[in-house]
Amino acid sequence: MKNIIFDLGAVIIDINYNFTAEAFKRIGVTNFDELYSKKKQDHFFDDFETGHLSNDQFRTEIRKHISHEITDQQIDDAWNAMLINIPVSRMKWLQSLRPQYRIFLLSNTNRIHVKAFSKIISDTHGEGTFESCFDKIYLSCNIGLRKPNAEIFDLVVKENNLNLVETVFIDDSPQHIEGAENYGLTAWHLKDGDTVENLMTKHLSL
């Protein structure tokens, strides 16, 4: 194994989907669980993740599910509630991998989250520290593609001349693992309760 493609949320950065679900319910989106979950989401979330919806258009979609007035900041705060942090130990672990592997980040995300997690990471670890851990970072909202579609894996592989048999993809979502495997990548599923450090140790010791 020479190349590692990491997901971001729940793999590198700790997140809790329930925090966002509960935050939206508190501000009036009582059907949020029907709109968004780890396994599936309403189409406008997909459009937001691929950059086809602006921040304002996303907020407009959210407001369709609320019967009272609500501010942009309330929506953003509820949406960002899931984002926690990257532990210092994980950041050091990532940095320790650099001499051995080419490392890439491949995340389905959106511009509201990007602004929020960039600030969280910068405040905790210093500006530029996170970016230096990766050969290249691919964010769905910047490239107009999202997992689990084959096109996004093809972009990362071909743009970096990666050999499929030397490359592993790590993600916490089963549908993304399936998409990567269908494309031809080796994919390791990070299950709830496990850590990416432990997952890699298990697989590399087999």
Structure report:
With 206 residues, this protein is α/β, with parallel strands linked by helices. It has two domains: 3-14 and 86-204, 3-Layer(aba) Sandwich (Rossmann fold); 17-80, Orthogonal Bundle (DNA polymerase, domain 1). Helix content is 47%, strand content 14%. It has eleven helices and seven strands. It has a five-stranded parallel beta sheet, sandwiched between helices. A two-stranded antiparallel ribbon has the order 2-3. α1 packs antiparallel against α5. The two termini are 13 Å apart. The model has no long low-confidence stretch (mean pLDDT 96).
Helix content, binned percent: 40-55%
Along the chain, the helix and strand elements come as: EEHHHHHEHEHEHHEHEH
Individual helix count? 11
Question: How is the CATH topology of the largest domain named?
Answer: Rossmann fold
Total discrete domains: 2
Structural class given helices, strands, pairing?
alpha/beta
Distance between the first and last residues' Cα: 13 Å
Strand count, sense and barrel status of the largest sheet are: 5 strands, parallel
Supply the CATH superfamily name of the largest domain: HAD superfamily/HAD-like
Shape, principal axes of CA atoms: globular
Instruction: State the name of the first-level CATH class of the largest domain.
Output: Alpha Beta
Name of the CATH architecture of the largest domain: 3-Layer(aba) Sandwich
- Gyration radius, rounded: 17 Å
